[in-house]
Amino acid sequence: MYKELLPIGSVVLLNGGEKRVMICGRIQTRTGDEAIYDYSACYYPEGIVGSDSMFFFNHESIEKVFFLGFQDEEELTFHKHVLDRISEIAYEDNKIVVKNFTEE
């Protein structure tokens, strides 16, 4: 489920959107909401200009990828050892908890 997540810094257009956003977080929650979102993002090119300038959405809401974010050895290792192995997460006691993590 989390294998397809884009790297930090990716610039995308959301379904029905008119302005591009830049991904700045993965597997995110927002205050007052128990939902877990695939991404948090901010407007591109403005960036985070205030607490109300963050957006939360899931991978299927992406209409188009304009730029694939930074990928180095550290990102590839994180994907291999963490994102590729998470199959289920939950929100419990105000934090994200991994429910199913496959061994290598």
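(ticket continues) Second input and output from the same batch:
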Amino acid sequence: MSGCLKCGRELTRDEIGLHKKMVNRGAQSFLCIDCLASYYQVSKQGLEEKIRQFKEMGCTLFS
């Protein structure tokens, strides 16, 4: 797995999928959920809820 572009923490597949879904599907570098929440000024819990919703919708970007 790759690391977060900002903090360097190892990323999960869901974090990579979330970055692709919200920022750029063709991205090659990614932000972790904490850095993405900070960038968009939203809560981590809100982003976790979006991941759950995307999974329920069958989005193939999420494991």
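Agent notes: Residues 1-63 form one domain. The CA atoms of residues 20 and 27 lie 6 Å apart. Closing as not reproducible unless the customer responds.
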